[in-house]
């Protein structure tokens, strides 16, 4: 956002964001999930034009883009009116999105508790719990993955863990035998937490200024990937079979320009 650049001298990473989008969109994928804050200033036509350059509609027509609503996407005094986001992604507004894809159930949340009414929030919680239970009853679903903007766990210096998200969604997520990973953005960094053999992933590396995280002995929660600042821009590629789900986290080395692996993990299961 302009105010962040002028008042705080924060980086923009425009070139890095474009390079990341180009690499991510290269090759075949069944779907893309964006964890929110698609643009810095949601009311800016310039920002949306830049988004369309990085994520061309013609390319997205071949690989469906699923979107979680971020706090920037809600609009406000500095971010403008969210009418363009609302027009493009009405399914992301205050409701659970359930997408079944090649044996994987994707559950996309709207974690913006502050803009949702109590009844909207509760309806989403109930729908989420029902979708987890239903996944257990469908033999063709091997894995459940959850996506939302605000992280239930993070060592972000300026962003606290979101307790409302943890209480409402992580607790039932941990009770589901088919649940594998819970992905969040908001903090522009990469973190991986292991909770009861499930992964809680913070992957806010799609662009914008990189966030500082508490490092080493200063961590709030023990991350299995403890990176020094700044964490590189990155994205996660997922591959699933009935008995296994695997992730590779890709980033571009600033010095060499080569694409490398920042992290990789997999979960084996016996219910495939």
Salient structural properties:
25% strand; 26% helix; 3-stranded antiparallel β-sheet; 6-stranded mixed β-sheet; alpha/beta; 272 residues; single chain; 7 helices; Purple Acid Phosphatase, chain A, domain 2
Structural commentary:
The chain is an alpha/beta fold and 272 residues long. It has one domain (2-234): Metallo-dependent phosphatases (Purple Acid Phosphatase, chain A, domain 2), CATH 3.60.21.10. The chain has seven helices and eleven strands. It has helices at residues 2-8, 14-24, 45-54, 57-60, 83-88, 118-137, 163-175; strands at 31-34, 64-67, 97-101, 104-108, 143-148, 179-184, 190-195, 198-203, 234-241, 244-252, 259-268. The protein has a six-stranded mixed β-sheet with strand order 3-4-5-6-8-7, covered by helices on one side. α6 runs parallel beside α7 (163-175). The radius of gyration is 18 Å and the shape is globular. The termini are far apart.
Summarize it.
The chain contains seven helices and eleven strands. It is α/β, with parallel strands linked by helices and 272 residues long.
- What pattern of helices and strands is seen along the backbone? HHEHHEHEEHEHEEEEEE
Are there runs of 5+ residues with pLDDT below 50, and where? none
- Structural class computed from helices and strand pairing: alpha/beta
Per CATH, the class reads Alpha Beta
Question: How many strand elements?
Answer: 11
The value of Rg in angstroms is 18 Å
CATH-defined architecture: 4-Layer Sandwich
Please estimate the helix content.
Answer: 25-40%
Q: How much strand content do the residues show?
A: 25-35%
Measured between the Cα atoms of the first and last residue, the distance is 45 Å
* Side-by-side strand order of the widest sheet: 3-4-5-6-8-7
What general outline do the C-alpha atoms trace?
A: globular
Could you name the CATH homologous superfamily? Metallo-dependent phosphatases
Number of domains: 1
């Amino acid at each position: 956002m302009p105010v962040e650049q002028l008042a705080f001298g924060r980086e923009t990473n425009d070139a890095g964001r474009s390079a990341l989008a180009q690499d991510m969109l290269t090759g075949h994928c069944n779907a893309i999930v964006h964890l929110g804050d698609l643009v810095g200033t949601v009311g800016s036509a310039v920002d949306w034009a830049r988004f369309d350059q990085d994520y061309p509609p013609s390319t997205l027509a071949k690989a469906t883009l699923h979107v979680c609503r971020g706090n920037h996407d809600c609009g406000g005094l500095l971010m403008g009116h969210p009418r363009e986001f609302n027009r493009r992604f009405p399914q992301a507004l205050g409701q659970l999105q359930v997408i079944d894809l090649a044996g994987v159930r994707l559950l996309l949340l709207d974690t913006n508790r502050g803009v949702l009414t109590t009844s909207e929030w509760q309806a989403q919680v109930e729908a989420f719990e029902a979708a987890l239970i239903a996944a257990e009853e469908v033999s063709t679903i091997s894995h459940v993955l959850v996506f939302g903007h605000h992280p239930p766990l993070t060592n972000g210096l300026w962003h606290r863990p979101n307790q409302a998200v943890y209480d409402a969604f992580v607790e039932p997520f941990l009770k589901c035998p088919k649940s594998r990973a819970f992905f969040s953005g908001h903090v522009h960094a990469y973190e991986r937490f292991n909770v009861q053999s499930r992964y809680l992933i913070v992957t806010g590396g799609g662009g914008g200024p990189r966030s500082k995280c508490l490092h080493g002995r200063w961590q709030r929660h023990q991350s299995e990937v403890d990176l020094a600042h700044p964490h590189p821009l990155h994205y996660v590629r997922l591959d699933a079979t009935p008995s296994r789900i695997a992730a590779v986290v890709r980033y571009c080395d600033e010095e060499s320009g080569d694409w490398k692996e920042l992290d990789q993990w997999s979960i084996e299961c016996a219910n495939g």
